[in-house]
Structures are given as structure tokens and as C-alpha cells.
């Protein structure tokens, strides 16, 4: 293969593997910066993956399935917000519960609807569409880089939008303030609970979109192991990126690259598939070991806010 072909395959692997991580990481940024720890990203992604595949199967429209996957994640985000914001539950325990509820509910619904823990395979017409389908020669550079899922490029553009919201808007200023000094915000008339509710709901919605992207693009069906730790990798990317959307993008590109090269490296059969499967998780551990000490957590992160004063 020529250099451009190999480069195109690598870029394509990143464009397919990064969006689920990036969408989930951006959602985590919202929750964490507002002061609510959300380790339930994995469960939200898993339920979003199933609802997305199920909706696309019945409607025949990948975009509808993609959106409904986000709604499913938002539903779990609402549960997390009620527990942590309204009832001041321990945020780590609540997130752990979400990680059990999401996959459990997805498998239960899958068996109830399809008599199997796996959903039916989606046809190309039911999946997310690709840009410029049929315009380029299969296997070429432009085919791999341009003829891909528009949701992949939209997720990258979303980083700029969320950066603007965080650092250039009034809502973003209040969001960050609620994660640092919630009592001071309350004295200024800011409804801290409302801000945190909105952020946790957005966190769930984006995580659900990330899960739905997996089943509506690469995997083409829901399976219980379809997310396989991607939610935790997304959280690691947020820590790596110091809880900022632009930093999370860099982390997700690195982790997405490591995840995307698995099928490329594995096709040679020169390395054990088990070792290749370890690559994203080993890189995640190394990133946490090397960079977690340099990451400043929002001052009020994980601390319940009893009431607006």
C-alpha cells in the first residue's frame, strides 16, 4: 500500500473511533465543571447505544436513532441529577448505580423486544449516512477521509461550540462558577441547582449520542459489550484535558487513534490480538499516571450543595 493509502486508513480509523469518546467526554466536561461528578458515562453510553440501534431498526432512519440515543442518555442523566442535586446522594455511588442500570436496562429491553441480548444487524439504509457516498474510488485517500460519517466531523466542530459556551457566554461563566464557589453564586441570585441539572442532563445527552454513534456506524447492532470501557476512557480524556473541551479533544484523538489502529495492526497477525486489544487501556492508564497530578479539579466537584441561599 502507498503512503497516502495508509495515511487515509489511519485518519479514517481516528474519525470512526474518536467521536464516541469525544461526545461522552464533552458531556463529562459539562457535569464536572458544574460541580457534579458523573462516572455513569459508561452506563449512559450503553443505553444510548441500544436505544439508537432499536430506534433505527424500527424507523429505518439513522439520524432519528442517533437523537433518541441521546434522549436515552439524558433520561439516565435525569436520574443522576435527581439523586445527586436534589437529594445530595454520594455522586460516585450514584454514578456507579447508573453504570449498572444502563447496561441492565438495555439487555432487558433487547431480550424483551428481540428475544436476544443482541439487537438485529442494521442495514446500510438504517445506519447513519456517509458524506459524498459513491463519489470517490473505494480505498483511496479521499474515500477514507471525506466519505465518512458527518457526525464524526460534527462532533469535532462541537468542541468549538462548547468552548465558546464555557468561556465566552454568561451561562458558561455561571456554569464554571457553580463548580468552584456555589455558595457565592447563590448569594448573587444564581440558581445553582438549575445550572447543575442542565449540565448533568447535557452530560447524559452527549454520552447517549456517543453510544448511539457506535451502534449506528461501526458495529451496526447492539451487543452487551459494545461500549467496553469507552465511557471510562472518555472520563480519562477529560482528566487528561484538564476538564476543558479543547483538552478533552486532544485526549480523545490520542485514545481514538489507539483504539482505531487495533483492526489495522491486528490484520497482520504478527501480534497477538489480546495484546492489541490492550492498547487503548494501557495508554489510558499511562495518561492518568503521567497527567492526573497536573489536572486541577473544580473546587466544588463532588460536593453536594444543600440549597440556594
Q: Number of helical segments?
A: 13
Say how many strands there are: 0
Q: Tell me the major beta sheet.
A: none
Structural shape:
globular
Count of the separate structural domains: 1
Calculate Rg over CA atoms.
19 Å
Describe the structure.
- By secondary structure, this protein is mainly alpha-helical.
- 71% of the residues lie in helices and 0% in strands.
- The chain contains 13 helices and no strands.
- Helix 1 crosses helix 11.
- The model has no long low-confidence stretch (mean pLDDT 90).
Briefly say what this structure is.
This protein is mainly alpha-helical. The protein is built from 13 helices and no strands.
Short descriptors:
309 residues, mainly alpha, ABC transporter involved in vitamin B12 uptake, BtuC, 0% strand, globular
What are the SSEs and their pairings?
Elements: H1 3-34, H2 41-59, H3 62-86, H4 91-114, H5 141-145, H6 150-168, H7 170-180, H8 182-187, H9 192-218, H10 230-240, H11 245-266, H12 273-277, H13 279-291
Helix pairs in contact: 1-6, 1-7, 1-9, 1-10, 1-11, 2-3, 2-4, 2-9, 2-10, 3-4, 3-9, 6-7, 7-9, 10-11, 10-13, 11-13
Amino acid at each position: 500500500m502507498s503512503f497516502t493509502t495508509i495515511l487515509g486508513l489511519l485518519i479514517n480509523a481516528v474519525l470512526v473511533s474518536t467521536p464516541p469518546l469525544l461526545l461522552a467526554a464533552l458531556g463529562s466536561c459539562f457535569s464536572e465543571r458544574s460541580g457534579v461528578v458523573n462516572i455513569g458515562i459508561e452506563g449512559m453510553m450503553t443505553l444510548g447505544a441500544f436505544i439508537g440501534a432499536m430506534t433505527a431498526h424500527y424507523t429505518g432512519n439513522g439520524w432519528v436513532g442517533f437523537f433518541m440515543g441521546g434522549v436515552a442518555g439524558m433520561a439516565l442523566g435525569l436520574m443522576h441529577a435527581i439523586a445527586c442535586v436534589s437529594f445530595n446522594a454520594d455522586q460516585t455511588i450514584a454514578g456507579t448505580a447508573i453504570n449498572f442500570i444502563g447496561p441492565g436496562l438495555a439487555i432487558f429491553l433487547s431480550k424483551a423486544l428481540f428475544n436476544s441480548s443482541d439487537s438485529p444487524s442494521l442495514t446500510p439504509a438504517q445506519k447513519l449516512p456517509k458524506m459524498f457516498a459513491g463519489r470517490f474510488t473505494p480505498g483511496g485517500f479521499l474515500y477514507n477521509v471525506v466519505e465518512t460519517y458527518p457526525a464524526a466531523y460534527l462532533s469535532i466542530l462541537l468542541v468549538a461550540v462548547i468552548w465558546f459556551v464555557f468561556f465566552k457566554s454568561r451561562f458558561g461563566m455561571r456554569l464554571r462558577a457553580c463548580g468552584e464557589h456555589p455558595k457565592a453564586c447563590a448569594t448573587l441570585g444564581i440558581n445553582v441547582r438549575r445550572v447543575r441539572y442542565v449540565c448533568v442532563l447535557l452530560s447524559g445527552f452527549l454520552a447517549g449520542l456517543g453510544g448511539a454513534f457506535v451502534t449506528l456506524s461501526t458495529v451496526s447492532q447492539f451487543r452487551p459489550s459494545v461500549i467496553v470501557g469507552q465511557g471510562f476512557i472518555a472520563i480519562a480524556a477529560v482528566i487528561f484535558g484538564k476538564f476543558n473541551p479543547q483538552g478533552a479533544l486532544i485526549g480523545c484523538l490520542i485514545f481514538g487513534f489507539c483504539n482505531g489502529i487495533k483492526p489495522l495492526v491486528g490484520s497482520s497477525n504478527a501480534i497477538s490480538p489480546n495484546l492489541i486489544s490492550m492498547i487503548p487501556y494501557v495508554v489510558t492508564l499511562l495518561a492518568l499516571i503521567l497527567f492526573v497530578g497536573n489536572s486541577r479539579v473544580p473546587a466544588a466537584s463532588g460536593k453536594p450543595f444543600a440549597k440556594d441561599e
